[in-house]
Amino acid sequence: MDFIEKLGRTFVVTGEIEPAAAITDSFLKKAEKYRQYTKTINVIDSPLGTPQVSSLAACVLLKQKGFDPILQICARDRNKTAIINDALGANLLGINKILAITGDYPKDSKPVYELDSVRMLRLLKEEMPKKYRGFKAYVGAAYNPNAEPNEPEQIKLEKKLKYADFIQTQLVFDFDKLDNDIVKKNKKKILVGIMPLLPGMADYLNKNIPGVIVPEKISESIKTADDGIKLVNGLARRAKEEGFAGVHLMMFKLENRIGEILNGVV
């Protein structure tokens, strides 16, 4: 079954890769580490506005290798016309899954932000299929349960769910952050973001990655890579026990240990 068809029927796993800022397809090696567990791979679209091989180009190469890529599109870097162009081009190339996000504020370029993520979701899911013959996309959105106060994020999540086929969360280390009515009603569409930590990584994430909060207690508990694997395996198990649609794996140099992370989960 297709990834979308599996949602709510069986626990699903999606992965993530980040192309390099160089003429290289080395990201394919990372993708291969996921193949045994999932063929559905997100391609990150220039986090923090940092240039890289385009998400669309990387998705095409993944598609050629038998993967089911999710094209990430940031409104930060595109006006409405550019978003439509990329979405139509992706469809033409057989890529029909899109993660629509607003995008982090860039460090070294001027942002666009003509549309926000909700407006882009409506464009992709409701407006484009009516206007552009043959266009059809399964669209996803992001949710950050770590933001404080979280009520504004929950309001946006409810708006996104009017159009989104699936939701992927920011990294979660505390499941109490997912304890709200909007999440509870829509667990079958939500994939919980998880990532194994290496020693010292928590401080970097807390300082440099918007929307990520690693609790101090967890940070102090990560003495070895094995500790990080054990932690995230527990998070994956809990996501399954609590009835979420699945997990979204964000790996960092530990792709060889995906099997341990998912042990007893899938």
Defining key terms:
single chain; 266 residues; alpha/beta; TIM Barrel; 8-stranded parallel barrel; 11 helices; 16% strand; globular
Task: Provide structural commentary.
- It is a single chain.
- By secondary structure, the chain is of the alpha/beta class.
- The chain has a single domain, classed as TIM Barrel (Alpha-Beta Barrel), CATH 3.20.20.220.
- It has helices at 3-6, 27-34, 55-64, 80-92, 117-131, 151-160, 181-185, 201-208, 216-221, 225-241, 258-261; strands at residues 12-17, 40-43, 68-74, 97-101, 138-143, 166-171, 190-194, 246-249.
- It has an 8-stranded parallel beta barrel with strand order 1-2-3-4-5-6-7-8, surrounded by 6 helices.
- The longest helix is centred in the C-terminal third of the chain and has 17 residues, at 225-241.
- The radius of gyration is 18 Å and the shape is globular.
- The protein starts with a helix and ends in a 5-residue tail after the last helix.
- The model has no long low-confidence stretch (mean pLDDT 95).
